[in-house]
Design goal:
Blueprint: H1 20-25, H2 34-43, H3 45-50, H4 55-61, H5 64-71, H6 74-92, H7 97-101, E1 110-113, H8 129-144, E2 148-153, E3 161-164, E4 170-173, E5 185-186, E6 188-189, E7 194-195, E8 197-202, E9 205-216, E10 219-225, H9 233-236, H10 247-267, E11 274-278, H11 284-297, H12 301-310, E12 312-315, E13 326-327, H13 329-336, H14 339-343, H15 347-352, E14 365-366, H16 367-373, E15 377-380, H17 383-392, E16 408-409, H18 416-419, H19 422-432, H20 454-483, H21 487-491, E17 502-507, H22 523-531, E18 537-542, H23 550-564, E19 572-575, H24 580-589, E20 592-595, H25 607-611, E21 617-621, H26 624-629, E22 635-638, H27 647-671, H28 681-694, H29 700-743, E23 748-755, E24 767-775, E25 784-792, E26 800-803, E27 806-809, E28 814-822, E29 829-837, E30 852-853
Helix pairs in contact: 2-6, 8-29, 10-11, 11-12, 12-29, 20-24
């Protein structure tokens, strides 16, 4: 056999007339336009699948002869012309939502930092919900015309490829990506157009990061990559793997993301008006911004902190303390000891930025606390998560009532056009026209659903379910062939699932709190549900456990083992290597989406939001977004919240509810077809109601508008104010805060008087007067905010605050503050008076973390 030691590749040349294919392939706009996807697929359907639906790779591997044939194919050229027309119309559209509402804001750029981004399976820089949310956020920012750039890391190995062996155990397989095969390009700057690199200081050496760009519609995403020759072998590995390595690797990744990311966008000439941190991984960006202001503008640390914090927004996604990164003092000293010198603060002052108000010298440095202390605006990602976050992080605002902790919420959504099946989208466009796409957040736009008949919708749903069944069978066949199953078992994959049966999907990251195993608590009861001859049910599972999560791997193995039992053969299936492509098929094809997290640990969740526009119905625990969306007729709520610290008790209540819903509500509704057409009319009524209530609300169009109105615009205005006249307001505000802190210990309040009836009872709607004596020492009445705080005696529920504004001087430095409290709802209440610092330039009334309560 001859020896062939040398290889080379021949790259095809795109013929004249269809060269615009390259422009299309290198902008991810194509991934939410099915006409563009079908254009690439028709060039070579088999190669399209082999390339992982990656048009950049397709154009490198397609045969030259096929390109030549396409260039002379009238139908193909017409198809390309049509798609390019759609792209140019999208790219050049002027009357987008942002321009209509903020015509003066086109230069107010938002810079969005995230450790992962999930746009499409062809760009593997995501692991789960955080990345998918970030990707959808970027897409909707482009749709709405928000001036928006994004920053992340480019991972050589991405996440991991999941393989399930014959014992049902998850095995992790690394895949090394050739960046030249991805739909990305180098960022080049300067007259000589050299690739842009930025430098970060690490202990004893400098680390270089190359900058790449991904085009997402009209949004630019910049990805940093340390796998460059200038770095040592260890430093080249910093951007090898998403969430890989130990805590030292994590701190290096977060330095590159945040500090390197800030340096990269500034090197390209951007001056963002808002910095949005999507989770705490990017919190070091605040330190870099402050450091630069101290060095470049001669500000003190606290003077620089004012405009930085005012223009920062922090979004937290993690409702458990263990999920928030925290680094040891030793690690922080190693990586930031010299950094503090540039910031002109001591290392102990620096460490306090990442610790609770009451902390000890040995405490870890929390990235979430750093983000909260250096951002004047923060939010959770659902109403429940907002409440959980306020409780979790009350330690940063000692003395402030939980309800007053300044963490708001914006409930997550989805980029509807990415996740809606083309077949369903076609029905909507036929009924509502293409303008429907530009009004997805309006309830009126979804009323076009009335123009789609039950027959049309049901027929389309059955097509999508059959496509899902075929996809699952192919996935399972490939899995069994690779794992060494016998021929009989491989051929048996053609009997897996039945497209006529009620199909329920469950797919997500296999963290234990997601309770993927809840369904299997009582196998005898489950068997009765699955095997009911009149109302059979089948389940499809997918998801990855983190390679270090043994509990998650055991959950996967448990499902796999149950699926092998004769009672569940072909009716419970686990498909491997969960990614966007797997998720897409499931969202499009299942009848019901199952979600069973432990309350309140699902920060928001978006998977069920993706199912609804496709005609699937949610069966979920009332947590995250579903608690807000559920109305009793658009899906089913599993269980009820049990006030017990014993998780097993909650599990028992939920599993009983789950079986009851499946057996007596979900399956009967699906199989009731008392009509000549044999259609489940009542089921379709639920489907329609689900779409009408979920579609216009739980999308990233609405979500990005919420971020813009609630946070971005205020951050832009405050930043502008605090930077005016060489940071005049910042310097004054920092000096004022320093004076307030100096004298705040003198402030006290007492003698709270309130005048109601002798029985201390008032009627709803009535007001009563409140007075309080406040000692201010060196401070002035206009420098404080005095309010009566009213809350139910249970200690939970809405807290109402009424400002006491009438001021009367009594004796030296003592003032009598008075005002009125209004009874807005019946019940028994407790109240007291609090005193806060107040300045008109505040973004949040609690931004100084100081509060004094009346004795």
């Amino acid at each position: 056999m001859p020896n062939w030691p040398h290889t080379f590749s021949v790259i095809p040349q795109i013929p004249a007339g269809i060269e615009s294919l390259r422009e299309l392939a290198y902008n991810l706009w194509w991934c939410w336009n099915d006409d563009a996807i079908s254009l690439f697929r028709r060039m070579d359907p088999d190669l399209w699948e082999a390339c992982g639906h990656n048009p950049a790779l397709l154009l490198k591997r397609v045969r030259q002869s096929k390109l030549m044939a396409a260039s002379t194919d009238g139908d193909f050229c017409e198809h390309l012309k049509r798609v390019m027309g759609q792209w140019h119309a999208y790219r050049d559209k002027k009357d987008r939502w942002y321009k209509q509402n903020y015509p003066e804001g086109e230069n107010d750029v938002v810079a969005y930092f995230s450790a992962e981004f999930g746009f499409h399976e062809s760009l593997p820089i995501y692991s789960g919900g955080l990345g998918i949310l970030a990707g959808d956020h970027c897409k909707s920012a482009s749709d709405l015309g928000v001036p928006f750039i994004a920053v992340g890391l480019l991972y050589r190995l991405g996440y991991f490829k999941q393989r399930i062996n014959k014992e049902g155990w998850q095995e992790s397989e690394s895949v090394t990506w050739d960046f030249n095969d991805l739909p990305i390009s180098e960022v080049r700057t300067g007259e000589d157009k050299r690739p842009l690199t930025v430098q970060m200081q690490m202990p004893g050496r400098a680390v270089q990061a190359k900058v790449w760009e991904v085009k997402v519609g009209n949004v630019r995403l910049f990805l940093l990559d340390t796998d460059v020759p200038e770095n040592s072998e260890d430093d080249r590995r910093i951007t090898y793997q998403l969430y890989g390595g130990d805590m030292e690797m994590r701190i290096k990744q977060e330095i590159v993301l945040a500090i390197g990311g800030v340096r990269a966008i500034l090197a390209m000439g951007y001056q963002p008006a808002v910095y949005h941190m999507n989770e705490g991984h990017a919190a070091f960006l605040s330190l870099e911004r402050i450091r630069r202001m101290v060095l470049e503008h001669g500000l003190t640390f606290n003077e620089a902190l004012q405009p930085v914090a005012a223009s920062n927004l922090f979004t937290t996604h993690t409702p458990v303390p263990a999920g928030n990164d925290a680094f040891s003092p030793e690690l922080m000293g190693r990586y930031f000891g010299d950094f503090t010198l540039d910031c002109k603060i001591t290392f102990e002052e620096f460490m306090r930025l990442g610790r609770p108000a009451e902390s000890r010298p040995g405490d870890s440095f929390s990235m979430t606390i750093l983000a909260l202390r250096t951002s004047r605006q923060a939010n959770g990602v659902s109403a429940i998560h907002g409440r959980v976050s306020r409780e979790m992080w009350q330690i940063v605002w000692p003395g402030v009532p939980r309800e007053e902790v300044p963490i708001d919420h914006v409930t997550n959504g989805i980029h509807t056009l990415t996740w809606m099946a083309p077949e369903i989208r076609s029905l909507f466009e036929k009924a509502g026209g293409h303008a429907w796409e530009d009004r997805l957040w309006e309830k009126e736009a979804w009323k076009c659903l009335k123009g789609i008949t039950d027959e049309e919708f049901w027929h389309t749903r059955q097509q999508l379910k059959l496509k899902l069944v075929k996809f699952v069978r192919a996935n399972l066949r490939q899995q069994r062939m690779r794992a060494g199953y016998n021929a009989e078992d491989i051929l048996a994959t053609e009997d897996v699932l039945d497209p006529g049966i009620l199909t329920i999907g469950f797919a997500r990251r296999f963290a234990t709190y997601k309770r993927a195993g809840l369904l299997f608590k009582d196998l005898r009861r489950l068997e009765a549900i699955v095997s009911n001859p009149q109302r059979q049910v089948q389940f499809i599972f997918a998801g990855k456990a983190h390679p270090a999560d043994e509990g998650g791997k055991k959950l996967i193995q448990r499902i796999y083992q149950v699926a092998q039992m004769p009672a569940f053969k072909n009716r419970i299936i686990f498909i491997e290597n969960y990614d966007i492509n797997v998720a897409r098929h499931m969202y499009h094809g299942v009848d019901v989406w199952l979600n069973t997290p432990t309350r309140p640990l699902e920060a928001s969740g978006t998977s069920g939001e993706k199912v609804a526009p496709n005609g699937g119905i949610n069966l979920s625990v009332r947590d995250g977004w579903w608690d807000e969306a559920f109305d009793g007729a658009n899906g089913w709520a599993v269980g009820e919240e049990v006030n017990s610290s014993d998780a097993s008790i909650q599990d028992e209540f939920d599993v009983v509810s789950l079986y009851d819903l499946l057996e007596h509500h979900v399956a009967p509704l699906f199989y009731t077809r008392n009509n000549e057409q044999n259609l489940p009319r009542e089921w379709m009524r639920w489907v329609r109601h689900s779409i009408e209530t979920i579609g216009p609300v739980y999308n990233t169009g609405r979500m990005v508008q919420d971020y813009t109105r609630k946070f971005y615009r205020q951050a832009i205005e405050k930043r502008r104010l605090l930077r005016e006249n060489n940071f005049e307001h910042s310097k004054a505000l920092a000096a004022w805060k320093e004076r307030i802190r100096k004298y705040w210990s003198e402030v006290k309040a007492k003698d709270v008087n309130w005048r109601t009836t002798p029985t201390r009872r008032v009627n709803v709607g009535e007001e009563f007067a409140v007075e309080c004596s406040v000692y201010l020492g060196e401070l002035r009445p206009e420098e404080v905010w005095v309010e009566a705080c009213v809350q139910p005696t249970s200690g939970t529920g809405q807290l109402n605050a009424f400002r006491l504004q009438t001021v009367t001087a009594t004796e030296p430095n003592w003032y009598r503050f008075s005002g009125a409290v209004k009874a807005t709802e019946s019940g028994t209440y407790q109240f007291n008076v609090s005193v806060l610092p107040y300045h008109p330039d505040f973004v949040s009334k609690h931004e100084m973390h100081l509060i004094t309560w009346a004795a």
